[in-house]
DNA sequence: CTAAAAATGGGTATAAATACCCATTTTCAG
DNA sequence: CTGAAAATGGGTATTTATACCCATTTTTAG
C-alpha cells in the first residue's frame, strides 16, 4: 500500500513534536515536512506536495482560513485538515468553506487523527461526531427558516458596532462621526435585525462570537 | 546532579506526547507520571510527588486554578507550572494567586519550558518575558491608582452577567431567578463598577475579553 | 461568635435604547 | 444612466438601563 505523505503547519513546537513522534511509529504515513508558519509552507509546497496537510488555524503570519483558500485553489489535490483548539461552529463552517476536507481538534486522540487522515485521503470529509452535533444544533437553532437575509454588515454598521462595543453611547458616536443621533439609531436597529437579537448586550456577545467586533 | 522529577496533567494527547518525547532525551529530567485529568492527578500524588508539576488550565473535571490551590496547600514542596494556551492577564494573575510558580504558554519553545522548570525547581518564579510585559501593561493601564477593589465577581454576578449576554432584559432575568428587578439592577450596577465600564455593551465586550462570560 | 461581604429589596429620576412611522441624498454596480 | 442599496435625518412613544438615595437579611470568613 502506498504511503500517505503528510505535512504539518503549526507554530506550537509541542504539537509538532507530538505529531512527529506519532507518525514515526506508523508505517502507513510518511511525514515529509513540518512548517512553523504560512510563508514557509507556501514556499515548501512549491518543491513538494503532500497528500494531506495538517493545518493549524492560528499562525503567526497568515490566517488558517486564508491559507486553506490559497492552497485548495493552487493545489486542489492536497487534502487539507484543520487542526485546532477552536470548537466554534463558525470557524468550522468558514474553514470548510475555505476548502478544508477535515476538521480535528487538538484534543483529539491519536485514533481520531488517523481516521481523519484516512478519510480525507480517500476523498471523504471528516468532522468529529461531537462537532457534527454542534454544527447541526447551531444550524437548526439560528438559521432555521430565513436564509440569512444579510449576514454581512456595511462599513458604517461595522464602524458603529465597534464603537458600541467600546463604551460609547449613541450620542457620543453621533458626535464623533459628525452624524445625527437618529442615524446611529438607524444603524443600531439594522445591527439588531441583522444579527437577530433584541438588545445591545446580545448584539455584542453575538458579534464577538461571529468575529464581527473585536474586544 | 540529582534528576528533577516531573509530572504532567493535560488532556491533550498531542501535548502529552510532545512532552514525553522531549523529556526522553533530556537526562536532567525524569518524567514520572502523565495524567489526563485532575482526579487521577490527585490520586496519583498520594503515591508519589514530583518536584515539578506541569499543569494544564483546561481540564475536563477540575479547573486548573482549583487544582493549583489544592496542590499548593496539600503539597507545598511541589513546584507547579501552568502550561496553557491562554495568554490572558487575568488568568496569569489568578494562577499565581492560586499558588503556581511558573506560567508557560504551549507555544513556548523547548528551551523556554526547560528554563521554567529549572527556575521553579530552584525556588524562583518564572513568567515569559512577553507575558511579563502584558501583565505590566495591564496593571499600569487599568489598575492605576485604585488597587483593584473587586476583581472577582460573585456567583450571582456571574449568573446575571451570563444572562445579560444571552439576550435577556433585567425584568426577564428577575422573573427567571424569582428576584426583584431592583436586585438585578443592583447586580448590574456592581458589574459596571467592577469592570469599570459605563454601559451594557462595553460590559459584555470586556467580560468576554476577560473570560468572565461566554458567547 | 462577630464582623464583613454578599444578596436581597425599595423610591425616584434621568438617560439611553428600542420600536414604530416617515423622508432625502449619496454611492455604487449593472 | 438608472435603479438598488446604503447612508443620512426626523417625529413620537415606550421600554430599558443607569444613577443616585436608602434599608434588611443571609452568607461567609476569621
UniProtKB/TrEMBL annotation, chains A, B:
InterPro entries recorded: CheY-like_superfamily, NreC/VraR/RcsB-like_REC, Sig_transdc_resp-reg_C-effctor, Sig_transdc_resp-reg_receiver, Tscrpt_reg_LuxR_C, WalR-like, WH-like_DNA-bd_sf
Keyword Kinase in annotation: no
Pfam families reported in the protein's UniProt record: GerE, Response_reg
GO MF, any single term: DNA binding
Domain Response regulatory positions: 5-121
Entry superkingdom: Bacteria
Keyword Transcription applies: yes
Domain HTH luxR-type: 146-211
Keyword entries, A-Z: DNA-binding, Phosphoprotein, Transcription, Transcription regulation
One Gene Ontology biological process: phosphorelay signal transduction system
Protein name: LuxR family two component transcriptional regulator
Taxonomic lineage from the root: Bacteria, Pseudomonadati, Bacteroidota, Chitinophagia, Chitinophagales
